[in-house]
Amino acid sequence: MHTPHPPPRRAGLRLGAVALAAATFTLAGAGVASAHVTAQPNSAEKGSYAKIAFRVPSEKPTAGTVKLQVTLPTDHPVASVRTTPMPGWTAQITPVTLNPPVQEGKTTISQAPHIITWTAQQGTRLGPTEFADFEVSMGALPENADELVMPAVQTYDDGSVVNWDQVAAQGADEPEHPAPVLHLVAKSGNGHHDLAGAEHGSATSTSSSDGDSGGSSGEADNTARWLGGVGLVLGALGLGLGAGAVARTRRPRR
């Protein structure tokens, strides 16, 4: 007895819906897994001055980020740190006295920036679907270290706190709450010197201003490329399913 097959168009639509749901679930999972507090870019030349952004996403669906605290290392200190003004946020740099002083190249450092704290002003926060880059200019970066581990503490307006302070062991999987890391690489030898270095004159700096927080063009570019890739994949799936449906409609019925 001949068993009727579902109409080709309906079968194609069902397969397309399943494929789209699977792709959406996979991509959503990847987005959640990568939402950490990170240093952008994650590498800089040894001995240079560099502009680094601590990229902070708000991960809670019902709360917003209102405070970020970053701790700089004291075993390989950075002599000077300056913050970029952020609308709606105040920045405070707390120094630490090094005893004994630390020798970095030809410089002896007895006091260094240690804790950077950004605090949202009244009415300002990073909402559940937002992120921001908290920028600093720092240097000179150590020449006798391969990385700077900079633990961060993220505070939400519901009182919850997330510590980004875990360091992965060599060869181990990434921990749940990894600390931001700046990898230090050898100088390229092209004589380039970050313009931020020319502006450094003191070890600490504070800044404050009013308004709303913003994002970065680099993140927008990455998002555009990501969405473009998703579109190409889904388009290919649609073409394949459509071709299959057309082929089935042209088969002679028994």
Description:
The chain has 2 helices and 13 strands. The longest helix has 33 residues. Helix 1 packs antiparallel against helix 2. By secondary structure, the chain is of the alpha+beta class. Strand 6 and strand 7 form a beta hairpin. 25% of the residues are buried. The chain has a 6-stranded antiparallel β-sheet with strand order 11-10-4-7-6-13, with no helix packed on it. A 4-stranded antiparallel β-sheet has the order 1-3-8-5, with no helix packed on it. It is globular, with a radius of gyration of 25 Å. Helices cover 23% and strands 33% of the residues.
**DSSP E strands, number:** 13
Following the backbone from N to C, one meets helices and strands in this order, namely HEEEEEEEEEEEEEH
Mean pLDDT: 76
State the helical fraction: 10-25%
Spatial strand order of the main sheet = 11-10-4-7-6-13
Instruction: State which percent range the strand residues make up.
Output: 25-35%
Low confidence ranges: 15-33, 191-224
Number of helices: 2
Please give the largest β-sheet. Answer: 6 strands, antiparallel
Radius of gyration: 25 Å
Alpha-carbon distance between the two ends: 11 Å
Give the tags.
six-stranded antiparallel β-sheet, alpha+beta, 254 residues, 13 strands, four-stranded antiparallel β-sheet, 23% helix
